[in-house]
Prior knowledge:
Elements: H1 3-13, H2 23-30, H3 35-51, E1 63-67, E2 76-80, H4 87-100, H5 105-108, H6 113-126
Antiparallel strand pairs: 1-2
Helix pairs in contact: 3-4, 3-6
Amino acid sequence: MDVLERVQRRSTKMIRELEHLSYKDRLRELGLFSLEKRMLRGDLLAAFQYLKGAYRKEGEGLFTRVCSDRTRGNGCKLKEDKFRLDIGKKFFTMRVVKHWHRLPREAVAAPSLEVFKARLDGALSNLV
């Protein structure tokens, strides 16, 4: 367990009304996500911004978008591009692509970042 996760676990336990609940139930009551989900949320937000054109230079060639109505799921799949040396990009794409494909169609097709955030939070709250 990560140090930050332990701090969050301990701090949620300090709330008297919630001390008898399990960690997951305390997070749910407070409307919080675990550290792992928060990191995934950040990665998916960065991927959405990249796909909308926010990171032209920095993220050049990270993903190829393959949109089709014939696929199951959200209809807009991401394909990882091949890299030679920049392994950091590769790890980011590996973390994001698997989860992106599981997002609902309405989240992926969001018109703005704020709408995407709201729909993403709904999708992540269903993942317990």
